[in-house]
Amino acid sequence: MDPLSDIIALLRPHTALSKPIEGRGDWAVRYAAYGQPGFALVLDGSGWLTLEGCEPVRLDRGDFVLLPATPAFELASRTGIAAIPVEPTASAVRHGDADGPPDLRMLGGSFQIEPANAAMLATLLPALIHVRADRRDTDRLARIATLVIEECADDRPGGAMILARLIEVMLVEVLRHEAIGRESHQAGLLAALRDPAIARVMQAIHADVRGRWTVTGLAGIARMSRSAFAARFADTVGCGPIEYLLRWRMALAKEALSRGGTSLDRIAEEIGYESASAFSTAFRRRIGCAPGAFARGLAAGA
């Protein structure tokens, strides 16, 4: 598989919660940081989203927003309104005036991902991914959004399951969309996959995680000098190439430990370590505990 598919398969995202959100009149609410991936799809109307420390972003009908690690944020009918703190809820939400048809309708919620590698998503993606419905290059996303909107409008058997699957498909489509994050210039996975030279290196690493990779060897795949490649990889991905390789090996190790039933010798062999001892030493150095202790902590819900 390609690097993006590898990471999505490792994280196994699935819809944990989706609920309708409505607003009418003048209103503004503030939510505390959540930490897990959150999303919102504007079904009708418009509103404003403001992440903590950032400028307000206008959301219009058909827009999709993905927050890889949901920070504190405000949602409002317009800018300049003092926000009141509210607590998240699993049920439908109505902001502003209680009576009358809503000015804004959204579908909002969160994704659940595998806890062993939950932090990976936030480190590889921009803090805010905003797909605007008026972009000419979002036809596929627009079609999925239309299906979501239609499913929300109907009360048909199996609707909740279909809606959850559509949202998950939309998540993957958003992550692989070429335009996502281009304007932010933020280092990470999406930036790496847009750079042909770095993308070739990422594909090589993911295709053979056990390989005895060196910066010089990877620079050859990128068709660049060693120094130029090392600088470009760090600027694009956010870390050096060998550091990325080690992070990916540890991510695979944590996934194997979370599943259980695989010996340390087998894990070491699968991710490129000569022995269980060498793997355990590397794991303890990077993760802060022995592999067995990590697995027991996951089993205990720590």
TrEMBL record:
<feature type="domain" description="HTH araC/xylS-type">
    <location>
        <begin position="199"/>
        <end position="297"/>
    </location>
</feature>
<keyword id="KW-0805">Transcription regulation</keyword>
<dbReference type="InterPro" id="IPR018062">
    <property type="entry name" value="HTH_AraC-typ_CS"/>
</dbReference>
<dbReference type="Pfam" id="PF12852">
    <property type="entry name" value="Cupin_6"/>
</dbReference>
<protein>
    <submittedName>
        <fullName>AraC family transcriptional regulator</fullName>
    </submittedName>
</protein>
<dbReference type="InterPro" id="IPR018060">
    <property type="entry name" value="HTH_AraC"/>
</dbReference>
<dbReference type="InterPro" id="IPR032783">
    <property type="entry name" value="AraC_lig"/>
</dbReference>
<dbReference type="Pfam" id="PF12833">
    <property type="entry name" value="HTH_18"/>
</dbReference>
<keyword id="KW-0804">Transcription</keyword>
<dbReference type="InterPro" id="IPR009057">
    <property type="entry name" value="Homeodomain-like_sf"/>
</dbReference>
<dbReference type="InterPro" id="IPR050204">
    <property type="entry name" value="AraC_XylS_family_regulators"/>
</dbReference>
<keyword id="KW-0238">DNA-binding</keyword>
